[in-house]
Amino acid sequence: MSNDRTERPAPNLRLYDSAARAVVPLTPTVTPGTVAIYLCGATVQGSPHIGHMRSAIAFDVLRRWLERSGQRVVLIRNVTDIDDKILAKSTAADPPVEWWAWAQRYEREFDAAYRALGVAPPTYEPRATGHVPEMIDLVQRLLDAGHAYVGERGNVYFDVRSLSDYGSLTNQRVEDLATTEDESQIDDDVEADKRDPRDFALWKAARPAEPADAAWDAPWGRGRPGWHLECSAMSRRYLGEVFDIHGGGIDLRFPHHENEQAQSHGAGWGFARHWVHNAWVTVKGEKMSKSLGNSLVVAELLKTYDAPVLRLALGTVHHRSTVEFSDETLADAAGLWERLSGAVLRAREETEGGGTSPVDAAVETVRARALPAEYTAAMDEDLNLAGAMAVVHATLKRLNTVLAARVSERDAVVDAALDLRSQLDVMGLDPLAEPWRSRVLGTGPAGADAAAADALDHLVTALLDQRAEARAARDWARADALRDELTAAGVVVEDSAAGARWHVA
Question: Is the full-model pTM beyond 0.90?
C-alpha cells in the first residue's frame, strides 16, 4: 500500500465478524487511518446477475461510509479469469471460444454492470492470470512448511490436518467434513491421489483435453492454480500479510474463505483480521441460483427497470439480511426513488436563480455536510441501513414540508435538500451526482452513447417545445396528443413551475 501520512481519526464502526460471530469494533486498523479491504470479485464465467451486484453494492456502501468517516480505504476486488467453469463453458460454446476471450467478454459485462449501478471502481482490480508467479511461490512455501504435498498425477494439495485452526472461520471440525472442495471443483483427476478426501487442490496438473495455454510451468509440473489459491496470493501482494477486512457473499464462507485462511495461515501470514459477509438475494423465498432457473441478469433487468431503482432495492437492505427480489420489491423501490429524486429536483427548481441553484452544490460540498447523530450512530453500528433510512425518510418529509409551504423559505429548502443529498450519497444514491444526474435532470439516459443521448435530447426537447406552444395557445388536445406520443415512446414528462422535464421510463 502507498504511504499516506495524513492524520485521520480512528473509525467508530462496529461490524459483525463472521469468524468471531459477534459485532466487534473495527478499531484499531493495521495502518492507522487506513482500512484495507479484500473483496472476492467476479469469476468471469457468465453474465453478472443481481446476486453479484448485491455483494458489490454492499461493500461499496461500506467503503463510502468509511471514507465519509475520515478513513482512507484501499479496496482490492479480484477477477478470477482462469477456472474450471471458464474452461468448460468456453469449450462447450458453439462454436468453441478461446478461454481467455470468454473471460474477457464477461469481465467487460461485469464492468458495465458495476458502472451502471454506481459502484465505484476498486483501488486495484487484479486478475488471477496476472499473478501466477506469486501463487507458485505460495505453493512452494506451503510445501516447504509441510502443509502441502504433490500427488502422483502432479496435483498439489493442502493437508488440512496439518493446520490446527482449520475450520475456525466456519466453526467446523475436520472430522465432521466429507470434503473441503466446492462441488464445481471436484472431479476424478483431482480426487484420485489425495491422501485425505478433505484435502483441497492448490495446483491442478495440466490435462490433455484442456487448452495448452491454460497452464503454467511450476517446479512440481505444468498446470494451473486452484480456485482458492489466487486470493491468498493477491491479498498479500496488494495488502500485505495482515489486513483489516476480507469480504464476500455468505456462500463463499465455506469452502472458499476457509481454505483461503488455511493457505495464508499455513504460510505464516496473519491474513484477515475481520470477516464480513453479505447475505443472499432470494426469489420467491429461494436462494437465487442458476439451478433454480431464476438468475436475474443485470443487463436484462436494466431494459425494464431504472438503474438507481435496482441499486436502491439491493443496497438499502442490511448487508446481512436477505433481499427478496420481486416485482413488488422493485415497485416499492421505484416509488421511493421517484419521491427522493423528485423532491431534490423540485428544491433545485424552487431555488434556481440566474440559471444556478445552491441545491446543485458539488459532490465535495455535499459530503462535507454534517450528518445527523442518529444517522451516524446507525451506520456505525454494523451499517444499520434501516436506522439510516429512517433518518432519510424524516429528511424527505422535512423537505416536502418546506416545499409545500405557502411561502417557502429558500434557505430552509436548500438546507433540507442538501441534507437529503448528503445522506443519500453514503448509499450511492445522490440524485444530483453521477451516474444518476443526467437521468434526474432529463438530459438523457446515463451511460448512453453521447451522440445517441444528444439526438434523443434534441428530439424530445423539440416535442416539448411544441407542447409548450400548444399549451400557451390553450390547444389542450394538441398538448395532450404530444404528451401521449412521448409516453408511447417510453418518455415520462413531468410538469413543474420551471417548465416540463423528462426522463426515460
Answer: no
